[in-house]
Inverse folding.
């Protein structure tokens, strides 16, 4: 009887710890963008960079009307307009400013501009809020859980 209780306790502890780890992943991992158009992977930047980096790893429309991979055609820098969107690093160096809060910039390949954003994490939701003059907007990304 004692062996059964010990095994059951160990199983409960293992399952509880597993769920805690799954729920407490922090900001690192895969995130579905606001309108579900893309998937961004957030990782710690490799040295010598510091902070967090994010790369587009999937987009809903990977090819243009001619069947070629979508490129960074809206980029203000003409020499960068042929970069594929998939694999494009859209931010680097996000820095932590408090518990579950970061600051940084994010590049939007749809309009070719960088935006300064405040980032906050609440559970499986990541909110990016930015303002230009008096106009503010936010996007909420959801943790990607697979299909």
């Amino acid at each position: 009887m004692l062996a059964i209780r010990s095994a059951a306790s160990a199983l409960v502890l293992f399952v509880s710890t597993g769920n805690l780890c799954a729920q407490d992943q922090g900001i690192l991992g895969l995130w579905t963008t606001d309108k579900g158009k893309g998937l961004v992977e957030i990782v710690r930047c490799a040295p010598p960079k510091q902070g967090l980096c994010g790369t587009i790893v999937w987009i809903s429309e990977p090819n243009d009307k001619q069947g070629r991979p979508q490129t960074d055609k809206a980029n203000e820098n003409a020499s960068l307009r042929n970069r594929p969107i998939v694999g494009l690093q859209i931010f680097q160096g996000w820095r932590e400013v408090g518990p579950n809060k970061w600051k940084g910039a994010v590049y939007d390949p749809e309009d070719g501009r960088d935006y300064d954003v405040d980032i906050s994490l609440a559970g499986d939701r990541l909110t990016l809020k930015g303002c230009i003059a008096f106009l503010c907007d936010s996007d909420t990304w959801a943790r990607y859980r697979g299909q």
Remarks:
- The chain has one helix and eight strands.
- Helices lie at 2-23.
- The beta strands are 29-32, 38-44, 52-59, 89-98, 101-108, 113-122, 125-132, 135-143.
- Confidence is low (pLDDT under 50) at residues 1-23.
